[in-house]
Design a protein that fits this description.
182 residues; globular; alpha+beta; 5 helices; 27% helix; four-stranded antiparallel beta sheet; Alpha-Beta Plaits
Length: 182
C-alpha cells in the first residue's frame, strides 16, 4: 500500500481568546490536533493559528473533522479557515504592490474567506472610508489596509456587524507572513 504524501496546513480559528470569550490554551489546542492524528503540530500566538501535517488532501473533509472535534472538545461552535502552507505563500506573494511595506504608516490585515464566501461576494459587503481604508480582492482573501493616523475612522470594524463576518477570519500581515516560514 502506498502512503499518501503529507501536506502542511494552517487552521485559522475564529472567535477564540477574544474579549474573554472561548478561552483555549494553546497547549490544549495543540493536543486536540494531535488527538486527531495530525503530526508536527504547532501553534502560533494566542489568536488560534495551528500549523500541522496531514496526508488528507480533501480540505472540506478536513475542515469538517477539525470543526466537529474542536466544537465537542471545547464546547463552542468552532469555525476555521483552512489553507495549505503553499496557498498561504501564494497569498503573500500575490499581495497588492506595496502591501505591508509601510508598517509605520498603515495597518495591514488579510481577511481569510471561508468557503463558500468568495472575494467578489465579500467585496460587495465591504465599505471603506476614502483616505483611510484600502481594500483589494485576492484569491480566497481580501487585503485591507488602514491609515494608522486615522485608524479610529476606519470602517474595518463594521465588518463584524455584517452577515459575511461569520465567513471571515482576520490576521494581521505580520502573522500572515510569519506563518509562511513555520
Amino acid at each position: 500500500m502506498v502512503e499518501k504524501a503529507s501536506r502542511r496546513y494552517i487552521a485559522l480559528l475564529r472567535g477564540i481568546n477574544v474579549g474573554g470569550n472561548n478561552i483555549i490554551r494553546m497547549a490544549d489546542l495543540k493536543q486536540s490536533f494531535e488527538e486527531l492524528g495530525f503530526s508536527e503540530v504547532t501553534t502560533y500566538i494566542q489568536s488560534g493559528n495551528v500549523l500541522f501535517n496531514s496526508s488528507e488532501g480533501d480540505k472540506q473533509l478536513l475542515t469538517g473533522k477539525i470543526e466537529a472535534h474542536l466544537s465537542e472538545r471545547f464546547a463552542y461552535q468552532s469555525k476555521i479557515v483552512l489553507v495549505t502552507q503553499d496557498q498561504l505563500r501564494q497569498i503573500v506573494e500575490s499581495a497588492p504592490q506595496g502591501f505591508g511595506e509601510e508598517p509605520g504608516e498603515y495597518r495591514y490585515n488579510v481577511l481569510f474567506l471561508k468557503e463558500p464566501l468568495t472575494a467578489e461576494e465579500a467585496m460587495q459587503s465591504i465599505t471603506i472610508r476614502e483616505g483611510v481604508d484600502r481594500v483589494w480582492a485576492g484569491e480566497e482573501v481580501l487585503y485591507f489596509s488602514v491609515l494608522t493616523s486615522r485608524a479610529t475612522q476606519s470602517r474595518l470594524s463594521r465588518i463584524v456587524g455584517q452577515p459575511i463576518y461569520q465567513w471571515i477570519s482576520i490576521r494581521n500581515w505580520n502573522t500572515t507572513t510569519k506563518m509562511t516560514t513555520m
